[in-house]
Amino acid sequence: KEEADNIAGWVPDRQALHPFSSLWSFVIEHHGLRWRVMLRVATTPLKAGLLPLENLAMDPKKIYIAYDFWKQKYLGEITSVFVCALELGSCQVVAFYEKPQVPMVIASDRHVSMDAVSIEAYRCENNILCWNSKNIVGEKIVYTIYVPENMGFQGSNMKVMRDKGKNLLSVVVDGETEKTTVKLSFFLKNDG
Fold it and tell me: Against a cut of 0.90, is the pTM above it?
């Protein structure tokens, strides 16, 4: 039994909220953007609890938006703490972004980095979000775009769906060629 427990990750701190090797976190900087990716692995039973953002080297006074890669689900706005709950044998990969003031790609269904691997020449200026997608020919990629409350979606050269929530768009890149330029335009909403 002891050997099996060791293989499964049973370590002296197994009663901790985040036993050794169950929580990983790293920063990605890509095309002028910066986000944190947190990976939780339940190789042992993990307690439900609160994870202070400062434990992830994040400013607990800032507002973040969070996205779960495996569930392909927007987790909403996060401040000060992240609620952790994970079943035995499960894995969770969550990206945290400081809440943006402009439209921004926050995820894809292709890579746990939230797609630092396929996005090139990313920019958002003059209410236009644009990037080049490096594709695997024959495979589609679905990107998730966060749109601030004060902005509306105007149009795109790609198939766009409003299937993930109020402030989210899904952009489907079909992967017919090795590279695709994605362009979305937005407008500022009137306050009155």
Answer: no
